[in-house]
Fold:
Amino acid sequence: MKNPATADRNELNTFTSVVKMFNEFGWGTHGIRLRNGDVVKPAYREADDDLCESSFVTTSPMMYWNLDGTSVSNRNFDMMELV
Structure:
């Protein structure tokens, strides 16, 4: 079993796999609580080509996350839980 703390940030983990499934299959309108307490509804975005990486994104406000749920810009925006 792999220690999640050593996982690559560009790999889905158990939590983000569920977030991706909710997004892909349209299972409800669940939000994600961020470390700072905000709730957002990120969408999964598949990489367009070899120069891009798959990620989670919102458009308002514009935010990006690695596949493991960590924020690209600030740890206060890390994904913490489904709400």
